């Protein structure tokens, strides 16, 4: 996210009104609810995690132990167990 100068994007009367509430501070203006993107949509994080989880499950089915997978993927054993269970449910 980059910052914009308020005086370059807002009309003077709007800027003065905002300054009455927060003079010289930072203000976050949220997106409209119908313009919001879901988590990972912008960076493809969801896709990357889905691929990783599928790979973990495949390796588990092929005989790798939970401990080995946790070490390889730098995740806790509990996280690997959760991923395996979730992938198993998705593949049934």
UniProtKB/TrEMBL annotation:
It comes from the Bacteria. InterPro entries: c-mor_Regulatory_Protein, Homeodomain-like_sf, YraL-like. Gene3D superfamilies: Homeodomain-like. NCBIfam families: CD3324_fam. This is Mor transcription activator domain-containing protein. It comes from Anaerocolumna sedimenticola.
